[in-house]
Amino acid sequence: MKLFRYRRPSLKTLLGVTKAKKRIKKELGITAALKPFRWWTNTKRRVKRKVGYESDAGRLLRSGLPRPGGCLVVIGMVTGLGAVIGMAIHWSLA
Fold first, then answer.
1. CB of 19 within 8 A of CB of 25?
2. What pLDDT, in 10s, does the model give residues 52-77?
3. Long-range CB pairs of 64-73, under 8 A, 24+ apart, other chains included
4. Of the candidates 25, 23, 24, 21, which has an alpha carbon nearest to the alpha carbon of residue 10?
5. Using only C-alpha atoms, what is the Rg of the chain?
6. pLDDT tens-digit profile of 3-42?
7. Please, which residues have CB within 8 angstroms of residue 66's CB and are 6 or more apart in sequence?
8. Residue 50 burial by CB count (10 A; 0-12/13-18/19+): exposed, middle or buried?
9. Is the backbone of residue 13 left (phi > 0), alpha (psi -120 to 50) or beta?
10. Rounded CA gap, 13 and 10, in Å?
11. How distant is the alpha carbon of residue 19 from its chain centre?
12. Backbone torsions φ then ψ of 34, nearest 5 degrees
């Protein structure tokens, strides 16, 4: 399992709305009818994949190192709260 995801899943994806919509479109034949119109975007994606644009190294070059900001905020708050409680205990005992 990766430590950081490239993209966070949306709420609709987590609830299964996206999967249900795709299944309905496939059953109705909409996906097959629109297949010729996706030719250009699929070709672009294939070329990007071939040259390594979407590889881990390519993502690292484009956006830099992943920054776990949310985790650091929680760790900082817990550390600060611990320091405040420690000082309060120290002053009350003195």
1. no
2. 887 888 877 777 766 666 666 777 77
3. 66/3, 66/4, 68/4
4. 21
5. 24
6. 666 778 899 999 999 999 999 999 999 999 999 999 999 9
7. 3, 4
8. exposed
9. alpha
10. 5
11. 18
12. -95, 0
The three-class DSSP label of residue 11 is helix
What DSSP line would sit under 18-87, residue for residue? HHHHHHHHHHHTHHHHTGGGGHHHHHHHHHHHHHTTTSHHHHHHHH-S---HHHHHHHHHHHHHHHHHHH
Burial class for 43, CB neighbours closer than 10 Å (0-12, 13-18, 19+)? exposed
What six digits make up the tokens of 77? 């708050």
Residue located via tokens 């672009």: 44
Residue type, 69: G
pLDDT of residue 4: 66
Read off the pTM: 0.44
Q: How far apart are CA 22 and CA 34, in angstroms?
A: 13
